[in-house]
Amino acid sequence: MVVASFFFASMAVGIKFASHSFSIFELVFYRGIVSVIFMAVVVRARGASLRTPVPMMHVTRSAVGVVSLGSWFYAIAHLPLATAMTLNYMSGVWIAAFIVGGALLYGQSEKQGPLLFTVLMGFAGVVLTLRPTIDHDQLFAGVVGLLSGMGAALAYMQVTALGRAGEPEERTVFYFSVGTAIVGAVGMLFTDMTPWVNVRWQDAAWVVPIGVLASLGQWCMTRAYSHGATLVVASMQYSGIVFASVFSLTLFGDHITLMGWIGIAVIVGSGILASILRSRALPDTPAAEMQ
What we know:
Layout: H1 2-18, H2 24-45, H3 55-78, H4 81-88, H5 91-105, H6 113-130, H7 139-164, H8 169-189, H9 201-204, H10 207-227, H11 230-236, H12 239-251, H13 258-276, H14 286-289
Helix pairs in contact: 1-10, 1-12, 2-8, 2-10, 3-4, 3-7, 3-8, 4-6, 4-7, 5-6, 5-7, 5-11, 6-11, 6-13, 7-10, 8-10, 11-13, 12-13
């Protein structure tokens, strides 16, 4: 998950540069197309097949993931970026809530406390780093942003279920990429497309790297949720904020306040603590219990 977070943060750098020439939906579409091609090559090279025995699980995972992505983009457009990021990163908290709820059904909730604490600790670090704000006229966008985090949590848990069903990670990423490309294409139908003659080559050069980085990030994330302890992975997910902060500092000259550095330290500490507690982790999800 830490490696996945690095790839996602690197992808965000590319999006920041490419957004000078492309709209969000264009970037989503190009990201999806490049990822589809990249993952198709990976599947072929590994001698695997795109035929799946659980097509509806992929449809559900892609649909939930794409809706979450669209909700996040809406939140980004209507909320301060830090607030939209924080609400989306609440996915870890939602995952913890789902798992604790499942543990209650199995009478194992007393064993979840330490790992649940690391997830909440990591999210506290996110809040300290990003310091989100929201105005009274942004409540609807805030609810949408909150739903984006919940949708991401559901998508991650569906990734876990796909892993339990024996689906290869590359196949899961491929079908999610197809869904991403479709949503991007539909969005482009209702927005203005940037003529390629108006696109700077410096921005166009990021199109392929964005798709490849997204693929690698999704691939690592899928493997993490398929094989790792879910609460530990959810805690490690916050490392993306650390990488993003470092990139902001080194590439864009942004200033990180003392509170931000404290938040980064809390995030790193939560990841270390989650690793230490790994041996106590319960079966990862209610879905895993039912396999």
